[in-house]
Structures
1.
Amino acid sequence: MTSLPTSRLRDLPSVDRVLKTALAAAAIERFGQQASTRAIRDALEEARAACRAGAAVPEPSDLAADALVRLKAAECPSLRPVFNLTGTVLHTNLGRALIAGEALEAVRTAMSEAVALEFNIGTGRRGERDDHLRTLICELTGAEDATIVNNNAAAVLLVLNTFSLGREAVVSRGELIEIGGSFRMPDIMARAGAKLVEVGTTNRTHPRDYLSAIGPATGLVFKVHTSNYRIEGFTAEVSARDLSAIAKERGVPLIHDLGSGTLIDLTRYGLMHEPTVGEAIGNGADLVTFSGDKLLGGPQAGFIVGRKDLLAEVNRNPMKRALRVDKLRLAALEATLKLYRNPDRLVERLPTLRLLARPAAEIAAQARRLAPVLSNVVGDEFIVDVVECRSQVGSGAMPLDTLPSAGLATSHQSGSGQALEALAAGLRALPIPVMGRIEKQALVLDLRCLEDEAGLAANLASFSPGGDDAVA
Ligand SMILES: *Cc1c(COP(=O)(O)O)cnc(C)c1O
């Protein structure tokens, strides 16, 4: 050890000296004394380590500048907007559905004004939060009654707990799915207090399987739309309609978990058919559960719709209070559901549907416009191609039905996987992180979900390889 590093450390300015700089004064003005002092300490801490490793002693103003960068970075929201170019429209990790402008306006009002959340303006008496949506949902689905909870997982939990606590819940073996994020049907059933009774086999379940399983201890029959996988080949399942007849005959409720659940026939927009809530009700389910932020295109929520007498029991369950939704989401849901009253304009007004219905040719034209922009920023090391690709609906809906799309595939001249990873990191480090997917040694940006083309181009201008400097 020489004495040089120690003398260097002694030359480091004190916190007080840094605090006296003009930059520190600006930092204090904007972020306050306490946070600024803390940031200066952090900057000094790092400088101390750097000096030990042989770096030059920084000036007080350098340390103040470093502190300011830290303070600004800490101010930047953690829940940041990103460009979802993954090709998955309803990406659970990227927040699923984008809500419509009408819904956004409704949320803004509900957030900043007092609203008649549980107050009946007509009678002047107490009202119910479900009142705001009941009529709309019933109109759109043909159900008698409806309630809304935190998400579909909560809807399933609440229904199971209401009708099969300490009793048996009868389910086909082929429908005991895992949704992801540790949501597994058997586990939810156990936590809901239901005793799971599996019927049939993985690939085939027959009416007689249900008939022999339903007995005096049965609380409900549960049917799950296996939204995220499909069994093909030698298969048999009991249709919702047939199962409803069986449940009715035995006097137990049939609960149908649709998962994504859509309110309209999506084939009219050129998409594959996904069972609608109206169909599930029409097929005789006593209660149907589905999500608010999947194909429906609203905020996170879970719907329970169906028979009035059963919903009255659901609403009497004390767990309902713990799973209810707030006014913001009710406001967004009401505005979103109202858009469904005019299906002709839905595709332009509901972002989820608009993105799902975008024609591949339009996306390809966008890809051709953006290819030179991307090519220019990533440099000669990379080759940027306009490619055809397939998008996914996501969130478990229509798992096997991909949508023809287009995008930009960037590959490295010498096929370096490391360079590709660095490129992906660089795109994630942009002011608005760009999320793509790595596929066959190329970074693919599927442009289906890109509506702000100019915004992406402007964002790409701050690209630096590896993303080292792009964060500030
Ligand atoms: C997505 C899904 C759920 C869970 O819904 P969340 O809204 O994510 O809580 C439950 N069941 C099925 C079949 C699903 O697809």
2.
Amino acid sequence: MKLRLPLRLPPPPFPAFSGRLHDARTATAVGRVLGAAVAVCFVTGLVSHVLQHPPAALADGLPSRPAWGYRLSQGLHVASGTAAVPLLLVKLWTVYPRLFARPLLRSVRHALERLSVAVLVASALFELFSGLFNTAQWYPWPFSFVPVHYAAGWLLAGSLLLHVAVKAPEIAAHWRRRSPGTLSLPAGDATDRRSLLLATGAAAGAVTLTTAGQSLTPLKGLDLLAPRHPDHGEEGLPVNRTAARAGVTAESVRDWKLYVGGPRPYEMTLDDLRAMPQTEVTLPIACVEGWSKAARWTGVRVRDLLDRAGAPEGALIRVTSLERHGAYRVMVMPHTYARDPLTLLALRLDGRELPPDHGYPARIIAPNRPGVLQTKWVSRMEAL
Ligand SMILES: Nc1nc2c(c(=O)[nH]1)N[C@H]1C(S)=C(S)[C@@H](COP(=O)(O)O)O[C@H]1N2
Ligand SMILES: [Mo]
């Protein structure tokens, strides 16, 4: 049998869709808010990726200021991604009747356009839900989150740009309520649409307001749905990986010494470190999963420790934790951070000795860096 285009299929057993909740005006009205949320999410995601995994060419130029930069950017990343979840679901509901449009494939061009929409929908669902699961530290998949979430982000951005370009005439025709394509609406349909859009806005606003408090402390009273509350944890600061889970015990820190490597390497005990000039800074831990909290840290400036070892100004610094295994055992710090006067090897948190879960005997705290790079239980620092 020869296949002929357009395909002639039997009439679908599906319901007919009437009313205007599934029309181009509704799709445009939801789509432009969703598009804005995805754009914010994409840009802040790039910022996060560059700060966490700097490409060699950029590593030396990464700024250590503003100190709250990563906190703001990652807060926006998680908030815009969260807001996008209800927006995406409503958008998909608005356009799903098109799945039943016949003929299935009108032309090669039409087939390509449908394929690009399939990629768009798949990558959007994947990005939003993998991100959401990551905020809950739930990884129900066999691959590692960061590289796959990053790659799919580009797929989403590309297929979204293509979609906007293909739909540009329709988007323009339905951009405003009184656009030419929208004028002939029966009054009742317009009310339905307004209700849908209001409910969608309320849902997106509600999930954002009840989770943004995990990083935006003035809203922490409303933080009902976020997996983390900024005040819950040892010393009122959340903990991602406890000392117990990292295998750091009282035994393993008993004879602790810090090794500092450079042209004049040396070792220091905790008492030696306490005898050095101490600096106090207020800096946030801003976790890539979206929670963040500022705290008061006291300790020795990293640059003082490096100078003592004769480390060159521009050297890349490798910091190693006592922890035996774990993705964050070794961290590399460009000189812009290592030389910043706010960057400490912290010994105290809010005026008290560091609790084991926050990195006793010593941990790194640096401005404008993701939480994953604020290494706890530090045992070595070396100029590379
Ligand atoms: N050695 C080590 N340091 C680490 C981690 C880790 O798993 N191992 N987790 C990091 C992560 S993901 C975050 S968000 C911060 C959290 O710091 P806190 O537990 O003191 O709040 O520590 C970072 N430092
Ligand atoms: Mo983190």
